[in-house]
Specification:
This protein is of the alpha/beta class. It has one domain: 4-Layer Sandwich (Purple Acid Phosphatase, chain A, domain 2). It contains 7 helices and 13 strands. β12 and β13 form a beta hairpin. The longest helix has 18 residues.
């Protein structure tokens, strides 16, 4: 099974990249299933129903998220209409809308996608280690397990990797919007990358117009952050997973630079 995991999609720029590239990537790389992190999908903050349906039309099959999923109150409409397609972090306290995992069937094979959120330098929500441990035990019968760990600290992500080693197919980090070059497969068959990166404008500060962000750092006054528009890029990870035992056979970064290639799609991958 070949799975494409797309790094945090940031606003209109990120959606434009998907529109111009995703179907071609699916065809060329023979992708069976597409997962994308959507916590910054609408204006860089949260998700709205029409924007979510837009990326579904481009070929996204499942969506993970993180702490910014709550930034737009329309998340309730998305959770209500697509309860099995959009996932929020599992370790939010009970009673929070949405759910932290979802089961999909691809080519007669079941997979579970689980979303958890870190606590180091982030909100002190429930323990992600305990939450995912309990979740995995409930679904021992599902062989392929995909985990999006939305966290700030590399140490926390690495600790989670070794905690889950041999129990999940892959642990993909999100949240920092900066792709790391540390993809690996452990001897147990669990694959890992600290952060899948970002899809959107790279002439920016992690997707937002840079001048407002710089002004905020200089003055500490509030500024209205807007999604940047230039130097559009696509960050993702392609996974090849053995359907019989759930182990990762291959993990590679798949990145496109629309500006560098000078065309709308068909960019060279690296």
């Amino acid at each position: 099974m070949r799975i494409l995991f797309i790094g945090d999609i940031v606003g209109k720029s990120g959606r434009r990249v998907l529109k111009e590239t995703l179907q071609k990537i699916i065809d060329e790389d023979k992708i069976d299933f597409v997962i994308a992190n959507v916590e910054n999908l609408s204006g860089g903050f949260g998700v709205t129903l029409n924007k979510f349906e837009e990326i579904l039309s481009y070929g996204v099959d499942a969506a993970t998220s993180g702490n910014h999923i709550w930034d737009n109150k329309e998340y309730e409409k998305v959770f209500e209409k697509y309860p099995d397609k959009i996932i929020r972090p599992l370790n939010y306290p009970s009673g929070v809308p949405g759910k932290g995992s979802s089961i999909f069937e691809i080519n007669s094979n079941k997979i579970i996608v689980i979303n958890i959120q870190g606590r180091t330098f982030m909100e002190p929500i429930d323990c992600p280690f305990k939450a995912i441990d309990d979740e995995i035990k409930k679904y021992n019968d599902i062989i392929i397990k995909i985990v999006d760990f939305h966290a700030e600290a590399t140490s926390e992500k690495r600790a989670m990797l070794h905690f889950l080693s041999g129990r999940v197919s892959t642990l993909i980090g999100t949240h920092t919007h900066v792709q790391t070059a540390d993809e690996e497969i452990l001897e147990t068959g669990t694959s890992y990358i600290t952060d899948a990166g970002m899809t959107g404008s790279f002439d920016s500060v992690i997707g937002m117009e840079k001048n407002a962000v710089i002004s905020h750092f200089l003055t500490k006054l509030p500024f209205r952050f807007k999604v940047a528009n230039d130097d559009l890029r696509f960050n993702s990870v392609v996974l090849e997973i053995n359907e019989k035992d759930g182990k990762t056979l291959n993990i590679k970064r798949k990145n496109l630079n629309l500006k560098k290639e000078g065309v709308a799609y068909g960019q060279k991958a690296y």
